[in-house]
Write a structure and sequence with these properties.
Layout: E1 3-7, E2 10-13, E3 18-25, E4 33-39, E5 46-51, E6 58-60, E7 68-73, E8 78-83, E9 92-99, E10 113-114, E11 118-123
Parallel strand pairs: 2-11
Antiparallel strand pairs: 1-3, 3-8, 4-5, 4-9, 5-6, 7-8, 9-10, 9-11
């Protein structure tokens, strides 16, 4: 069982930056594939980025590649999402998620555990 809590959301102007954190409790954090997803009003929840367990391989959606950076600190049981050059289109609730096993990291249904979400709003 893994419990996830996001933090770091807020209001920022276009071109600004935010850093999201996802704190995990439970065992075997370094074995989970961790991901960030986001959901804007009236839209489906979509993949943003993921990072594998011990090996740390990363994956990004095309819409955030080059602007967002995902990382994890297995000693602190925490995952991060550094978001730079933010755009109004990035406005959404951001969720962190954990997946067991070796799975396609960009597929929402592969994730077993979810946080409650944190709001990110980018003003134009």
């Amino acid at each position: 069982q893994v419990h996830l809590v996001e933090s770091g959301g807020g209001l920022v102007q276009t071109g600004g930056s935010l850093r999201l954190s996802c704190a995990a409790t439970g065992r075997y954090f370094n074995s989970y594939t961790m991901g960030w997803f986001r959901q804007a009003p009236g839209k489906e929840r979509e993949f943003v980025a993921s990072v594998r367990g011990s090996g740390g391989g990363t994956q990004y959606s095309d819409s955030v590649k080059g602007r967002f950076t995902i990382s994890r600190d297995n000693w602190r049981f925490t995952m991060y999402l550094q978001m730079d050059s933010l755009e109004p289109e990035d406005t959404a609730v951001y969720y962190c998620a954990a997946a067991t096993g070796t799975v396609a990291a960009d597929v929402r249904n592969n994730y077993n555990y979810w946080g409650q979400g944190t709001q990110v709003t980018v003003s134009s």
